[in-house]
């Protein structure tokens, strides 16, 4: 096995709160907490293996030397890697699919339950003295809505969307799903595949689990939001640009929908002037749904296993069609 330098340009995004696999099995390991675009050229120079979470890697970049043999995308998405440029140089790009599903599903229902129970507002009210000043033991200043009997609309029915649907069924929810390509019907009821407009109009909660592409960018706009019920919730743990943020802000401010729970926004990290930063009835978490400790442990073990498979001459999880024996 020919070893080489293993470079992590943004290791800080993974964290150090668990034991990583020993990537030194593959050569010298160089880790950077974060890498700015202007620092990338110098830091990836002479790397044999690059493992990147979000740092853009272009194999045709002048800084990339013939030493580069492998690029690992530390996640399911790989739009930050020039996969065609890598293919032209015979460099496989491998991702890690389905490592974060349990973590994301849990976060989806965290957002749903926080919004439906108004737990954040109630906690703030208690801290302001609202309960201690009340003469009633059941002090509430916000309504509580049960999930049982409500309708969840799942947009996208892959690994995560289908698991969200199954958990919703456990809550006693009716599930609607939209998938642009045919998918197997799950074994629980009530469940229906429906059109996108129908899903937005009938759902009490809409949860987005579709990929970002030209067709889906900005698809949740004023028109679709206008179809939603007045008390309906919108959840997005997929990609920020799926939503037109100005249109969502208008819907929230005008109370045309009940609330939104977002783990992603259009520009990340969130810009100071993001229109949703102080939006009413809106909970925003910092792209955290994927990063449960167990999720990150699975991610790094799979990243290690991907390199091992490549060096053994049988690459797995290849996203750019390059499957050659390691030289």
In short:
The chain is of the alpha/beta class and 327 residues long. 30% of the residues lie in helices and 13% in strands.
List the topology elements.
Layout: E1 6-8, E2 29-31, H1 37-44, E3 49-52, E4 70-73, H2 83-88, E5 93-94, H3 101-117, H4 119-127, H5 130-133, E6 151-155, H6 159-170, E7 174-178, E8 191-193, H7 196-202, E9 205-208, H8 222-227, E10 233-236, H9 245-253, E11 259-262, E12 282-284, H10 293-311
Parallel strand pairs: 1-2, 1-3, 3-4, 4-5, 6-7, 6-9, 7-8, 9-10, 10-11, 11-12
Notes on the protein architecture:
There is one protein chain. With 327 residues, the chain is an alpha/beta fold. It has two domains: 113 residues, 3-Layer(aba) Sandwich (Rossmann fold); 184 residues, Rossmann fold, CATH 3.40.50.720. The chain contains ten helices and twelve strands. The chain has a seven-stranded parallel sheet, with helices on both faces. A five-stranded parallel sheet has the order 2-1-3-4-5. Helix 9 links the parallel strand 10 and strand 11. The protein is elongated. The N and C termini lie close together (9 Å). The mean pLDDT is 93.
């Amino acid at each position: 096995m020919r070893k080489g330098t293993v470079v992590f340009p943004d290791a800080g995004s993974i964290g150090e709160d668990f034991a990583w696999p020993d990537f030194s099995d593959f050569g010298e390991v160089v880790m950077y907490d974060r890498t700015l675009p202007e620092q990338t050229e110098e830091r990836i120079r002479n790397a044999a293996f690059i493992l990147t979470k979000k740092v853009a890697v272009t194999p045709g970049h002048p800084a990339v030397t013939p030493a580069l043999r492998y690029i690992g995308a530390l996640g399911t998405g790989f739009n930050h890697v020039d996969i065609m440029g890598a293919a032209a140089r015979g460099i496989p790009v491998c991702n890690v699919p389905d490592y974060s599903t349990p973590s994301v599903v849990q976060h989806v229902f965290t957002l749903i339950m926080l919004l439906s129970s108004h737990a954040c507002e109630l906690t703030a009210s208690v801290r302001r003295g609202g309960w201690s000043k009340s003469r009633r033991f059941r002090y509430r200043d916000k309504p509580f809505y049960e999930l049982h009997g409500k309708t969840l609309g799942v947009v996208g029915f892959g690994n995560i969307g289908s698991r969200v649907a199954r958990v919703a069924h456990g809550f006693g929810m009716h599930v609607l799903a939209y998938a642009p390509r045919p998918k197997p019907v799950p074994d629980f009821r009530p469940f229906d595949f429906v059109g996108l407009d129908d899903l937005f109009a009938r759902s009490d909660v809409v949860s987005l689990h579709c990929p970002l592409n030209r067709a889906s960018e900005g698809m949740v706009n004023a028109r679709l939001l206008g179809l939603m019920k007045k008390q309906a919730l919108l959840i997005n743990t997929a990609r920020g640009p799926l939503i037109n943020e100005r249109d969502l802000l208008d819907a929230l401010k005008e109370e045309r929908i009940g609330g939104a729970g977002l783990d992603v926004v259009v520009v990340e990290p969130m810009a100071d002037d993001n229109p949703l930063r102080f939006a009413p009835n809106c909970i925003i978490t910092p792209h955290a749904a994927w990063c449960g400790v167990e999720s990150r442990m699975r991610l790094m073990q799979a990243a290690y296993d991907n390199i091992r498979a490549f060096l053994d001459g049988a690459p797995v999880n290849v996203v750019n069609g390059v499957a050659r024996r390691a030289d």
